[in-house]
């Protein structure tokens, strides 16, 4: 799955988690916009984390056999998620949620990458690498353009745009959490102080 699809799946799971555990309070509480913005930032980083680690190490440095190995393995990722959770748990209640949303993003990433194995379109071996073998690149790392072109006719690739559209609608209805952080960052305004 491409970055857009991973972000969309992660956001939909985050929104569902927020609605079921907190009745949507993270999005709607006065002063919660700052916390929701930071949570969405943790979520997006988590949703891209496995690729941000594995792709450069495999494609550019040749340190890994494929772009789905180390950070796509639950044997590595679960301890990373636990460390992020432990670091964020050292702070107040809202900051503990940042570790949870990072976990939602990161774990959903590797599980969604394994979904094509259900219909024979891929494999799940990366989930337990290095205990389970992965097929190394035969002729070097693929190019992003080649991967994109080969994905164009794949229904799984096209599904990403549907998921992104649904995630956009849900995000908009949730009050567009994270947008204020982007606006402040682009305008270089300081983060507001207070509860959020």
TrEMBL record:
Superkingdom as given in the UniProt entry: Archaea
UniProt keyword terms in alphabetical order: Hydrolase, Membrane, Transmembrane, Transmembrane helix
GO molecular function: hydrolase activity
One Pfam family it belongs to: YdjM
Transmembrane region(s): 69-88, 100-119, 156-174
InterPro entries: YdjM-like
The UniProt record lists the keyword Metal-binding: no
Protein name (Swiss-Prot/TrEMBL): Metal-dependent hydrolase
Organism: Natronosalvus hydrolyticus
